[in-house]
Design brief:
By secondary structure, the protein is mainly beta. The protein has one domain. The chain has one helix and nine strands; from the N terminus they run αβββββββββ. It is globular, with a radius of gyration of 19 Å. This is Membrane-bound lysozyme inhibitor of c-type lysozyme MliC. Keywords: Signal.
Length: about 120
């Protein structure tokens, strides 16, 4: 009987907690020939986003970038702008080193000598 008495109280306490939702804030998409690249910025407005990298050159796998290897100089969903550098470790667990710079919805991903033009689409 006591479990029934406390059940609604616990449920009410869980409902009263603020919901923290993450979602895709922006996505960079670009291609060069048969190669396709994508970076997804996932999070909320309160914290630095989690960044997920995907490319045909790594078999389409989705790799979450380690914060220690990433420098996010600028990110604005509202302005559709980004300036990001990633330092790869040279192993298959992470993508190669790259730089992503974009503004007003256009962006360029630079990997070594290769420059990939693309779009930076952001949720409003």
């Amino acid at each position: 009987m006591s479990c029934l008495r406390f059940g609604p109280v616990l449920l009410l306490a869980a409902i009263a907690q603020p919901a923290l939702a993450s979602h895709t804030l922006c996505t960079f998409s670009g291609s060069q020939g048969a190669e396709y690249y994508e970076l997804e910025f996932i999070g909320d407005e309160e914290a630095e986003p989690v960044i997920v990298f995907s490319a045909t050159s790594i078999g389409g796998r989705r790799l979450t970038l380690e914060r220690a290897d990433t420098v996010l100089e600028r990110f604005s969903r509202g302005e559709r702008s980004v300036s990001l550098s990633f330092r790869g470790r040279g192993d298959a667990s992470q993508p190669p080193s790259f730089r992503l710079v974009g503004a007003n919805g256009s962006a360029r991903l630079t990997i070594g000598e290769k420059a990939i033009e693309g779009s930076l689409d952001c949720e409003s």
